[in-house]
């Protein structure tokens, strides 16, 4: 056991974690809440799809400017403010729904605003985490955050959301508003005595900082490789997820109840598998990524050849574990390569890639499923295998301990020139005492 593993995560992190858990529950509730509300307002599948697409459109379009704002503003104040703003937005939406004063256009607008605020929160929250825990704890902290988010936001939350909607259609919105209030209250108790100094930005233009976010996210070989891997895996997995209903109910022939239990079991098992093999997140970045891709290949093959609910659950568990581990690993590597004052823009750049790839992948997956319910999974397995073969040698460049100090931020970086004395640069973060080689987190 390394010295970093012997030291418990600080109390400050568990307050941060608690705020996230409450907020994720609200997010999970609204995952089904918005589509159900749209279905109640219109019988048109196109109208329901419009609401779902709008939720993805906001982060896809706004992540880069949101990242620039996150780096300009105080991270703690920003996450509190965004939670408070979302609480007000959902409270107003609940009142409108309960009084039957909202139409499909209003619901689409609320969905867009909610995810726009959520995008700013995500970019600021990633920067705040670097103030809450030291670099040596990035791996363990991100593992807790990603695993808990998967369970609460994608398993517990949607189930609760469905039950709440059946009781009163405004309840999912009201519960989401309450969750944001609770998260804001918890975050307001955070005290950050070791917060990094903020960069000086006296004469910087906002548009220039947005453009700089692109350079930060994709300007170096390791960052481009991670962006390519994240985009490719997100596209392939989104295509397989988009067709899961067709696979379960039509191809395999599960009933609605059996299909629901199959999905729940797969999602829970994915987190259990990830936690049970937690030592993978302590490997070198390259090793963890390769193992994750292998898991993903096996999982997608199991899905593409499934003839029963348990086989679907096992395939989902392996594929979900692969996504969790590679997400944790690459997020940790990026946090160690990019200086604290640029984390918001880096997160914005990668959010843009993920949501754009996810949208395209969903469309492709639906088109493939028209031909065969198994085809999206077999294609995804083939993409994972091609990615594994083509990146087998190149992923060694992702090992943070082997990367040059200037890997993520070129010497001409304007932001680097503006950092206050004492602010950590790439070398400072990566070489912090107690950071075990290859430890990774989400």
UniProtKB/TrEMBL annotation:
Protein keywords: Cell membrane, Membrane, Transmembrane, Transmembrane helix, Transport
Segments for region (Disordered): 409-442
Species of the source: Catenulispora pinistramenti
Protein name: MFS transporter
Residues that span the membrane, as ranges: 12-34, 46-70, 77-96, 102-123, 144-165, 171-192, 225-247, 259-277, 289-306, 312-331, 352-369, 375-392
The UniProt record lists the keyword Ribosomal protein: no
Subcellular location: Cell membrane
Transmembrane helix among keywords: yes
Signal peptide (residue range): none
Membrane topology field: Multi-pass membrane protein
